[in-house]
Amino acid sequence: MALIQKLISSDKYSLKCPYSMTPKGVCIHNTANDATASNEISYMQTNTNSTSFHIAVDDNEAILGIPLNRNAWHAGDGGSGEGNRYYIGVEICYSKSGGDKFTNAEKRASKEVAALLKQYGWTISNVKKHQDFSGKYCPHRTLDLGWQRFLNMIQGELDNINNTTEIYRVRKTWEDAASQIGAFSVFENAKACADANPGYSVFDSKGIKLYPLTITVGSKVKVIGTNYATGEIIPDWVKQNTYTVSQISDTKALLKEIASWVYLKDLVLA
Ligand SMILES: [Zn+2]
Description:
It is a single chain. The protein is α/β, with parallel strands linked by helices. It has three domains: 3-163, Lysozyme-like (3-Layer(aba) Sandwich); 166-210, no CATH class; 213-270, SH3 type barrels, CATH 2.30.30. The chain has helices at 13-16, 37-46, 82-86, 100-120, 130-134, 140-145, 147-163, 187-196, 236-240; strands at residues 3-5, 25-30, 55-57, 62-64, 87-92, 127-129, 168-171, 182-184, 201-203, 209-211, 220-223, 243-249, 252-255, 260-263, 267-269. A six-stranded mixed beta sheet has the order 1-4-3-5-2-6. β3 (55-57) and β4 (62-64) form a beta hairpin. Zinc ion (ZN) is lined by residues 29, 130, 138.
């Protein structure tokens, strides 16, 4: 999920987020009005009261307004309160009138919160409501619709994230499961393991061999390196496209469409 960053200027830190923070969880709010996430964030950042929160989510976007390593004043539990000092405040927009915009904002929020749980290694028990800290009936519409229902949405999104996390296995062959010497969630780490152990390859969870692959004349490739074989910098747009290898010489390949030589190590099969 894309969390758009529109961070508060540091000269507002003393008013809005004076303390550094190692977050312990997420605190959910409803805005109780019908403004967009962008308007919520800019209003929060520019007004002169201390009330603040980290993230606002509407039906279109989620915006980070205060860094996650600083506190925000959103939980109503005082200057040294657990919520105010250790929880990431997430505001769900459009709760005043509800309807589709709120439904979609809540759905987006469940994805963003799941991403935070994943990022910090948390579980659903790290998700609190404003009410837990101060007794205020917030997030009002989310509570009206059912708090457990919202937690279930987040759990579902977290399950999705966990199920789609690929595990890269390093083996001699896929069939020879006993030869496995490592399993990695980061492809580059699996590749390094295979490089350090001649005869080993990297496979995805379906058994497709991902590395090393042989590039030959006629292969469709993408460019991942930073320099052409001539030393010139490869512009970013070149890396967007797929090319055909028309010739291989030693450690280099000639890419037909751009008539350029690129080192084989800087190519991957498309
Ligand atoms: Zn609240």
